[in-house]
Amino acid sequence: MLALIAAIPILLTIFMTVVLNVPAKKALPIAWLSIVIIGLFYWQMDVQHIVSYTVTGFLGSIDTLLIIFGAILLMNMLKEAGAMRRIEGMFNGITEDARIQLVIIGFAFSGFIEGAAGFGTPAAIAAPLLIGLGFPPMAAAISCLILNSTPVPFGAAGTPTNSAFACVNDVLPTLGISPDNWLLSLSFISALGMDLGAFIIIFLVVGITTQKFGKNHKFSDAVPVLPFCLLAAFSFSLFSLPLARFIGSEITSLAAAAITVFVLLGAAKTGFLMPKDVWRFESQQAKAAEKGGDKVDTSSHMSLLKAWTPYLLISLWLVLTRIPQIGLKPIVQSFSVSINGILGVENAVWSFKYVNNPGIAPFILVVLIGIMLYGLNGSQVKHMFVASGRQVYGAFIALLFGFALVYIYRYSNANAAGYESMLLAMAHGMADLAGENFFYVSPIIGSIGAFMFGSNTVSNIMFTPLQFETATILNLPQIAIVALQNQGGAIGNMICINNIVAVCATTGISGVEGKLIRTDAVPWFVYYIICIVVMTAVLSLGLIPAY
Question: Which of 233, 275, 295, 372 has the lowest tally of Cβ within 10 angstroms?
């Protein structure tokens, strides 16, 4: 009974977002209000503790919010300066084969944008670029949604993985676990399933595209580009896995995808692993693109080096400050502000390492450099800040109350009723309900979170504490279960209703959301199976560190 009552805020959120289509920025404040009522009148918490943990949650969201704002601001600065058009123009004229274009832009370039900005930006940039090259809008939408899964755990400088870690960071030392080592292991284990899945999912997307939108409607039309698909997955994994294991989550997708972009561009230009016959769409759009494909906006005389400079600076900063051997990491982390005993509650603690926050350094710092580098005027600067504020507003409200909700869940053991925390009550209920099958349920919970909230980050914030505690009760490796949560949220991106609505609006095909969900459901299930199989192998081979 306790577990069911404790789950009311989450069940209420699911009902509002899935059934009533209420956006997360409205649903989560209502969910927070429901947990406050339950805390006051059923768990018998006092007002001081509820207010204290709400404030602590608000403060805890600052880290993530700054990263989101900095990433979106950087993207808008590049658009305002024309640098993004120059980068997009780089892809024009590489090859006329739509299958190769799909792999380079839909996977590699989209993955780079995910690593740099995340939060819906990959589809918003990559899908229109594919349409400009002659792709049917539906094909562009489907492919970008599905392919924007592999790099997602490390999107926006590792925000989803770091958010999952932040939700259990204070518990780890009490278990004798080094937080830094645990985070590196979480990054690596999360990357394993996603990267190995890429070897299948990239080719699957090309096959879906040729079958549904090609002249012959044959999946087999994708076979000639299988070697190129494998090259893309191999290149990404070759760099992603060591980056995740030894440096951390911030640079994993950003650097691995950037390198993969140039590897694939080089392969396409030299004809390496390229199919013998060129495959094109037969639509009018494809014919128009074939006749006038050079109409992609390359009017800017900006050099490629200048266009890529902000990303090079970001990569350089993250490498220099995340590799322990360089010696800058402890210096960067030493700059912090903290508040102990917020509103007189001992467990209510907040610490903010502001120089170590990627939103401030390097994102906002690079934006300031970019304003001077590109010579942006006052109106351009104002426009990019205003546009960024509007884009982040919804996430701002959702994350504020999402973090507050999690803090009350975790620390609701401070009550006069003598109950354990709501989080533990739900974990016990989940353990009793799923039992040994929880291993298979874990990534589904992550996908449900992404489906509900439109974000792997918010899914991790909401469900990582529950997954961690349930794993503890069932004596399962907590890091494996949290990694499955992280992976589930990432693959849930392709069926997330918010992302689907956004990409439909971007590509001008609103009204086909149901068809997109049905199409993406098969790749989601394939990726789910891959994640389970890989994690089973990881456990069998003893690759989970002993803590």
Answer: 372
The DSSP bridge partners found for residue 338 are 351
Element housing 88 (H / E): helix 83-90
For the cut 70, the answer to whether the pLDDT of residue 286 exceeds it is: no
CA nearest 255: which of 72, 86, 104, 115?
A: 115
Confidence of residue 537 (pLDDT cuts 50, 70, 90): very high
Rounded CA separation 540/514 (Å): 39
Q: How far apart are CA 444 and CA 437, in angstroms?
A: 12
d(CA 115, CA 117): 6
Lowest mean pLDDT among 147-161, 190-204, 281-295, 356-370: 281-295
Q: What is the pTM assigned to this prediction?
A: 0.78
Distance between CA atoms of 537 and 531, rounded to whole angstroms?
10
Distance between CA atoms of 226 and 219, rounded to whole angstroms?
A: 12
Q: What is the CA radius of gyration of the chain?
A: 23
Name the 3-class secondary structure at 23: coil
Q: Structure tokens of 402?
A: 């999402």
Residue whose tokens read 């284990």: 189
CA distance 336 to 297: 44
pLDDT at residue 288, as a whole number: 46
Cβ-based neighbour number of residue 343 at 10 Å: 14
Tell me the C-alpha distance between 274 and 226, whole Å.
10
What is the token pair recorded at 532? 């389970």
41 contact partners, CB below 8 Å, separation of at least 6:
none
Query: Which tokens sit at 267?
Result: 């392969």
Q: What pLDDT is attached to residue 290?
A: 47
Q: 293 vs 109, which has greater pLDDT? A: 109
> What local confidence, expressed as pLDDT, does residue 99 receive?
93
